[in-house]
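Hey, can you fold this one?
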Amino acid sequence: MQTTESIGKYLALLHRQSALYVQRELIEFDINMSEISYLKNLCKNDGITQKQLADEIFVDKAATTRTINNLVSKGYVNKISNDDDKRKYNIYLTDKARIIIDTINAKLSKWNKILEQGFDIDKVGNLIEVLKKMSKNAIEYNNFDK
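Sure. Predicted structure:
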């Protein structure tokens, strides 16, 4: 089925609105949407290398370096030289980041509930599956080797 509506238009709109919500709700932490992606990933993979982190969230190395440096300056992560390869860095959450992660998760959960209003749980589940498949298609098409 071909649609005349632009999928990207609505994804971009949701992304902008999500960024506004995060900016407003988490202003006290001086953190933005992209930085949250790094912190949430580090919660699951604390101590991974900077390159592994970039690969996990599908962001180029330069953007990862900038974001990590911002998070270091804000006191949310530590960047430690890798013992095996001094050219690499391992990234670790600080206590400051660990303290705010529950608040971040609660605010993001609230945002999901706002977005899900008016939908039954099956439709939301279906939407998530469609978005996962679209993401996979985009990654494969753009040959992003993880």
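The mean pLDDT is 92. Let me know if you want another pass with a different chain boundary.
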